[in-house]
Amino acid sequence: MSTLDKAEAMKARTKQFAIRIVTVVRSLPQTRERDVLGKQLLRSGTAVAANYRAGCRSRSQAEFASKMNVVVEEADETVFWLELLGETEVIPAQKLTLLIEEGNELLAICAASPRTAKHHKGG
After folding, report:
1. What is the pTM of this model?
2. What is the CATH number of domain 3-121?
């Protein structure tokens, strides 16, 4: 698989993650917790996809690394909010397991991206 193909696959994967986050937020009960946690989750979960996409359009290695660092931060924050929703029983924790796993996988992949790109560039 070429680098371009991998990037396109990750764009699709992060977008699907964002769509799943939107679905979770829509399913939250109408409570004060939903308002606060839902907004935080929606913001960070959709930012994963948006910032990954922006990173793909980077003009330099430094810009790419910076965007991937933002993706890592947003993915980590998203996993936190998902865990909090489960641990506070706003949503049954077992319903969030696969989404948390996906968030952690995206986090790991994107955390490795700047190092991998730097290595390939010879830096």
Report:
1. 0.89
2. 1.20.1440.60
